[in-house]
Amino acid sequence: xxCPSCGGLExxxxxxxxxxxxxxxxxxxxxxxCATRFTxxxxxxxxxxxxxxxxxxxxxxxxxxVRAGLDAACKGRSLEDATLDALLATVEDRLAVRGxxxxxxxxxxxxxxxxxxxxxxxxxRFASVYKGFxxxxxxxxxxxxxxxPLPDQAT
Length: 155
Ligand SMILES: [Zn+2]
Prior knowledge:
Blueprint: E1 11-18, E2 24-31, E3 37-43, E4 50-52, E5 58-60, H1 63-73, H2 81-98, E6 101-103, H3 104-118, H4 120-130, H5 136-147
Parallel strand pairs: 4-6
Antiparallel strand pairs: 1-2, 2-3, 4-5
Helix pairs in contact: 1-4, 2-3, 3-4, 4-5
Bound molecules: zinc ion.
């Protein structure tokens, strides 16, 4: 979790309890750097997602990893943090529907699909990293997808 005050990434949970609706966890956190206290709401089951990588290895889904990729793609695009948070929540909802194990490519494909609706430039940047673009023709194909209403075959 990123501290809203100083941006530090180390914190400790000082309180954690289920919210009234039973589907989210309310966590009170304290930043290890500046001691600011802040509250997060996390979906129960979020950490249960397992990502299967291209080489077959499995690892726990880590929201911050996906977010870091999105942040890099959105650099300088003046998108609100809340916009990207909402995008991630949408992606996680869709992944959860698919069950406990998802392929890493699906995570990227879903994030890209959402990003296309928000910012075309960021979407092409994101695609260039997660799809491993090799040349200009890859960018052309991706830009074509932005203007083409055909559904993305990757999903
Ligand atoms: Zn802090």
